[in-house]
Every structure is written in C-alpha cells, then in structure tokens.
Amino acid sequence: MYYFAYGNLMDIDVMRRIAPSAKAVAVACLKDHQIAFAKCSDPSQAGCTLNQVEGTQTWGIQYELSEEDMATLDKAAGVPHGHWEHKSIVLRGKDGQEMSSTTYVIPSASGPYAPPASYVAPIYKGAKAFDLPVSYVSTLEEIIVEAQGNAT
Questions:
Q1: CB 151 within 8 A of CB 114
Q2: Which of 29, 80, 92, 115 could form a disulfide with 119 if both were Cys (CB 3.0 to 4.6 A apart)?
C-alpha cells in the first residue's frame, strides 16, 4: 500500500514507530493542495490536513507499507472515529512521474490549531532528511508560523 505523508509522519522515525514496514519510496508533490493545521470534529484531536487551494502545492514523502501497518496507522490517526479520513490522490515525483497514493485529511475541522514545537519538529526533520525543495520549506515555515500565531 502507498501512503503520502506531508506532516509529522514525514519523519521516518515517527512513521516507523507506528508502521515498522514503512519504506520511503519517493519525494513527491500534491498540486492544488496546501498543508493546514486544524482541530478535528473532536476538538481534543488536531493536526495536519490539506486544503484544496488552486496554484499551491504540498510536498511530502510517498511511503510503501504493509496492509497491516496501514490498518495500525488508521487506528493511530483516529480514522474509525472520524478524526481523519482517507483521500485518494495523484502525486508527481521530483522526476515528474505520476503516482497514486492515499493520505489523510480532517473531514470536519472544528477550528484552527496552533501546533506546538513538539508537533512541528518531526515535520522539519522529515523535510530536511528528504531534501524537500527549499522554496517549499520556506512556504511550510510561513504556514507553520502563521498557524502558531493565529490559532488558539
């Protein structure tokens, strides 16, 4: 199975704690989507999501993992409780190759989320480890700083 990580699961150490079979297979981009931070329908749960925004892009890591690990990832993300849901997507790799994947989005956000440093540290670690484009990392930093400053 394939899973596209664009948030804290870009850190392979965080990903492998949940899904030990996870193997990073590509750095990829999702067009017309922008990373955002939001609370789930249960406001005690929050994290990354994607907003459809024409002309934007979100870079991340395409992982290959076992079906068993995907089921474990679903439980950890609260998919059975509606905190996150699967979204089928088409990515473009750094080499221009298209690839299908699935990722998570928050289906019914209940408000903005100010991600703490402990949540964003793995995002930055993964972005650096997988050498995401410098221009995207700058945009990512701006989005994170804005989310930390504007959400309550």
A1: yes
A2: 115
Look at residues 103, 76, 130, 114 and name the one whose alpha carbon lies nearest to residue 6: 103
Q: Where are the domains of the chain?
A: 2-144
What are the tens digits of pLDDT across the range 29-50? 999 999 999 999 888 899 999 9
**Which residue bears the tokens 């394939």?**
2
For domain 2-144, give the CATH superfamily: Gamma-glutamyl cyclotransferase-like (3.10.490.10)
C-beta atoms surrounding 38 within 10 Å: 21
pLDDT at 151: 54
| Helices and strands per DSSP (H, E), number in the chain | 4, 6
Whether the pTM exceeds 0.85: the reply is yes
* Type of residue numbered 5: A
Residues 82-116 have pLDDT tens digits of 999 999 999 999 999 999 999 999 998 888 999 99
- Residues 87, 115, 81, 73: is their CA dihedral positive or negative? positive
Per-residue tokens: 22:
């996870």
